What we know:
By secondary structure, this protein is mainly alpha-helical. It has helices at 3-22, 32-47, 57-71, 82-85, 95-122, 130-144, 152-183, 185-198, 214-227, 258-262, 265-268, 305-322, and strands at 232-236, 241-243, 246-248, 253-257, 323-327, 339-341, 345-347, 352-356. The protein contains twelve helices and eight strands. It is found in: Endoplasmic reticulum membrane; Microsome membrane.
Amino acid sequence: xxxxILAEKIQEEFEIFMEKIAEFKGQPVDTKLLIxxxxxxxxxxxxxxxxxxxxxxxxxxxxQNLSYTFQRSPGFALxxxxxxxxxxxxxxxxxxxxxxxxxxxRSNFSVPHIKEAKENLAKGExxxxxxxxxxxxxxxxxxxxxxxxxxxxxxxxxxRGLFAAGTETVxxxxxxxxxxxxxxxEIQDKVYKEISEQVGHGRRVTMNDRPNxxxxxxxxxxxxxxTSVAPLLPRKVLESFKMNGYNIPKDTIIFLNMHSSLHDAxxxxxxxxxxxxxxxxxxxxxxxxxxxxxFGLGKRSCPGEALAKMELFIFMSSxxxxxxxxxxDPSGELPPIExxxxxxxxxxxYKVRFVDRSSM
Length: 360
């Protein structure tokens, strides 16, 4: 599945998203669920090779379980106790209920679609999804190497990772960006001006336009930095090592504090301010700050990084091109920029009016 195919899937889902937004005719709406549905459908189209109708029972169930696992997460501090809590006769901190929803994604989505993909491959059908591609490579690897780590369990884990990396974090970043633009209308005006000059209005923005939309790219990067949606990344130590005089034993779970890098005053100067210009030089060219690490670093970085970047660019560029974001009550207070912590840092729910640019 090349980048062009991924971009087409994202663009297709955005068109449906825009139709849903247009139905509100500029009336205030909370888009949190709608953004989640659209981004989840992109992941589904990649993983199983098809998208689902918004009212499809299995898709609705998947979304409910995904929403619960993210919004009701026990938090990193309690995650190590999940296995222990399962043995208790009572539901400690709601860990059992939370784990039931996690396992439901496996039993009601991942396992059935893996089974279906195996049956399709046995019939000689073409590779049409991530699952079928994985299974085919797994077969080839196992024929050559019996100790290959490609297996059904790791496939299930990878599907879970793709949903985690490509659904909640991306949709939350989009949700944040819209809110921040409500507080900084001059920023969305600058993005719209750039799109008008570089792309126009006769077609949608594509990934080929990205090199020419540098200010938009800077806005997306600054949103990732400012919000630090995934502030902590857990990692398991495979071999004991020493660091700064401390012994870190094998099998220790450590948490990488990504927030500290994204909000280091020594690097960013004024990290508490939302300022996309920090990613542009005097000539308007993008500055690649190595401290911008929303996806982590190295071979253990987020497996969905490339996909997430494409989703963010296509969705945000198309939204800026088609709509102006305006507050629910133009004469009232703006929704607050306050962070809620679960598995991701998300803003409080808010409503926004999407004003069609063509009618302005």
